[in-house]
Amino acid sequence: MRYLVSSYGFLHLCINSKMRLAINANHAILRTISLKELPAANMDVIQGYDNIPAELQHSIVTIGNFDGVHLGHQFIFRKMIDDARDSGHRAIVITFEPHPKMILHPDIHPFHLITTLSEKITLLEQAGLDAVLIITFTLDFATTTAEDFVHRILYEKLQIRKIFIGHDYTFGRGKEGNEAFLINKGRRLGFAVEVIPPFQLGNYLISSTKIRHAILDGNVKLAKVFLGRPYNIKGKVVKGYRRGTNLGFPTANVEPEKSLLPSRGIYAARISLNGTLHRGVLNIGTNPTFGNNRLTIEVYIIGFQGDIYGYPIGILFEDKIRDEKKFNSPDELVAQIRDDVARAEEILDPLFVG
Q1: 29-85 pLDDT, tens per residue?
Q2: Spatial distance between the Cα atoms of 171 and 176, rounded to a whole number of angstroms
Q3: Residues 224, 225, 227, CA angle at the centre, nearest 5°?
Q4: How would you list the strands of the sheet with 19-24, edge to edge?
Q5: Cα separation of 80 and 86, whole Å?
Q6: Is residue 138 located within the same domain as residue 34?
Q7: Whole-structure pTM over 0.90, yes or no?
Q8: Are residues 10 and 108 in the same domain?
Q9: CB 316 within 8 A of CB 269
Q10: How many folded domains does the chain comprise?
Q11: Is residue 157 domain-shared with residue 13, that is, in the same domain?
Q12: Are 152 and 301 part of one and the same domain?
């Protein structure tokens, strides 16, 4: 697997196979980019478009942010991969980092992402793609016209054979690039354009925005349907109040790496720890019974014993059990926790069969 680095507005110098030094040409800021932040993959991961290898030219491509890599995205990928295999070409995704809205609309805070860059790369590889081209999105890059993007990147750098786009995809300064623009350019420059219609599941049109809203509303079951997998967060186990231990249900307090969290309440979740999946009951809230003010994420791993402070942990949300509630006494809370555990086992047991 190869990581090839260069990007618009940046000069990247290879220091060694584990670390690269990046000089921001616009602001003269020196920073390091650890390749350990990105997952190992069989597909090529190309950072920037200045050193695209010859074997990736004449490929089949698609462009987008693909946050969540949901079923609608996966539908586009299947179409382009099938086309690439039939024609003997490579299937490449072009995406942007950071998400353009984070640069163009910094007033939107926090801007919740469904997947981290590392997760997105892993999911793209699992989809069967040959390469992902990551373009650093800056305010300077945002001034790139659709004309320049097509000529400089798609035509000169990639020499694409075909591009797949969603029905409503726009690109370039002022969103001037659209379906009609690409079709016209394709006829003149010699590449084909295929527009993929909206992906509908039942009565739902799937989108990253709808998935974010479902997660924020606590509807993780619907988010799972749209994603084709459970919504997940990763984090580190940190020290908490230890009230769960005193109540007979020791919990792991998790410091999440994402800002996108389901609404307050109790959830049934699968818990990944040291490569093993466990049944779990998860609380997102402020523990109103004890008068806390700080939002915490606490996980009770059913049947697990052990000291896991400082350990990385993964959470796969399966379903919401109930909303957050204030109880009159610790005994009343313990009785409810027992009910929550029983309900979680009903939800999770079928996922552990076989």
Answers
A1: 222 333 344 454 588 999 998 888 999 999 999 999 999 999 999 999 999 999 999
A2: 6
A3: 65
A4: 10-14, 19-24, 30-34
A5: 10
A6: yes
A7: no
A8: yes
A9: yes
A10: 2
A11: yes
A12: no
